[in-house]
From TrEMBL:
Its main location: membrane. Belongs to the peroxin-3 family. Residues 88-153 are annotated as: Disordered. This is Peroxin-3.
């Protein structure tokens, strides 16, 4: 009986054995696939988490640097001083008016015309009073062309206020947009580099592979830290040099666009926005053509920048190893590569500016057909420019909106994925 079924038993046993080994092999492959899938999902989740954290770091870094950027802009374009000078002129005019009222009748009759010119109402808004003052300023214009505001006529002061209030507003929008773009490029480059190194190290440990000895690895980390710290110093250029070029170009463009418009001229919000857009069109071309030079110094000025932002100990250690310079050059080369992309990076910069300007103009709360004097727009611009300051708050609607554009996230994702 056994002999009769021996062949069948052998065949059956063989089939079972093969099936067992096949099952074990398939099970092993499935387990490997599941493990690999888990690793991939973990990696993706880590990338996603770190990417999100990096974007948040970009915003917090932007807010921390904002006072350094805006302080010199406010100092050089001191609109408030001009406003005080105009108020002083008005107070002096009121004093003259009171003296005229105390003159004898004959003198009062002789000065009746002058009295009518100087008369204003205390119940009028400040911008309206200044507008009335401006219309009379030409008759009292001083022949003294000194830069001191106390020696300027009302006409001159009003022209200063017109140019400087608009220049400050647009300089703030452009410089902040430039800083936002710069930080998103810079920090995503560094974060991606750091993540890639961590991922490689983690993978090697998981698989029991020792890439380098600890001493050498530590030395490499120190070298990279020098290069990365130097790279982070480069925001200094916009904050201390680049903004001046932006200011000069904005001022010239504002003068060309608004030069013939008097503070008494009435405009709808759409008409005012069209004038602003004319300035923006020329400024967009300028910033796109000069994006690299506004954000990164020429190569011969790079060490000068490092001298301004680091102590002598750091500079000495940085210069001791030529690989630090090489690593910094690689980082700057990638940064400049993105900045030279006028279509993507230049387009995002233009969009940031448009969003910033639109958010400010929306805060004016004017009806489309409502006409107000340019003087009123200048006062609103001056007030709303404060929305472009951080005030140590994370709830600034204008700044938060600018920093959270989808297009900006897309740019950052492209940088982060560029392994």
């Amino acid at each position: 009986m056994v002999r009769r079924h021996k062949k069948k038993l052998i065949v059956t046993t063989g089939v079972v054995a093969v099936s067992y080994f096949v099952t074990q092999y398939v099970s092993s492959k499935v387990n490997q696939f599941q493990e690999r899938l888990k690793e991939e999902n973990f990696t993706k989740e880590q990338i996603k988490r770190r990417f999100k954290q990096t974007q948040n770091d970009c915003y917090l870094t932007f807010l921390s640097l904002l006072p350094l950027l805006t302080e010199p802009i406010y100092y050089e374009l001191n609109v408030e001083d001009i406003t005080k000078a105009l108020q002083s002129k008005r107070s002096k005019s009121k004093g003259d008016q009171q003296r005229i009222q105390n003159h004898p009748p004959s003198q009062q009759a002789q000065s009746q015309s002058q009295q009518q010119q100087l008369q204003t109402s205390d119940s009028q808004p400040l911008s309206t009073i200044f507008s009335d003052d401006f219309s009379q300023g030409g008759e009292n214009q001083s022949n003294n062309h000194s830069n001191r505001r106390s020696d300027k006529s009302k006409t001159q002061l009003w022209n200063d206020l017109k140019i400087q209030s608009l220049t400050r507003f647009l300089t703030l929008v452009y410089c902040e947009s430039l800083l936002i773009v710069f930080l998103h490029l810079q920090l995503n480059i560094l974060s991606r580099k750091s993540y890639l190194k961590t991922a490689i190290q983690l993978a090697s440990e998981t698989r029991g592979i020792k890439l380098t000895d600890n001493t050498k690895d530590k030395q490499e980390n120190e070298k990279e830290n020098f290069a990365e710290q130097a790279f982070l110093s480069f925001s200094w250029w916009l904050i201390n040099r680049g903004w001046i070029d932006v200011r000069n170009k904005v001022e010239q463009t504002v003068e060309d666009t608004f030069g013939e418009i008097t503070p008494r001229q009435e405009l709808t919000i759409d008409e005012f926005a069209i004038l602003i857009s004319e300035v923006q069109l020329r400024m967009d071309r300028y910033t796109n053509e000069n994006l690299v030079s506004l954000l990164v110094p020429e190569e011969n000025l790079e060490f000068y920048l490092l001298q301004q932002t680091n102590d002598m100990e750091f500079l000495s250690e940085f210069n001791d190893d030529f690989s630090n310079t090489q690593e910094l050059k690689v980082l700057l080369g990638e940064l400049k590569g993105y900045l030279n992309d006028k279509q993507q990076v230049g387009g995002i910069l233009n969009l940031l500016v448009t969003v910033g300007i639109s958010k400010i103009l929306d805060n004016f709360n004017l009806e489309k057909q409502q006409k107000v004097k340019l003087a009123s727009y200048l006062m609103m611009v001056t007030k709303q420019s404060n929305s472009l300051l951080s005030d140590n708050s994370l709830d600034n609607d204008v700044l938060f909106t600018m920093n959270n554009l989808q297009e900006l996230d897309d740019l950052s994702a492209g940088v982060y994925a560029n392994f």
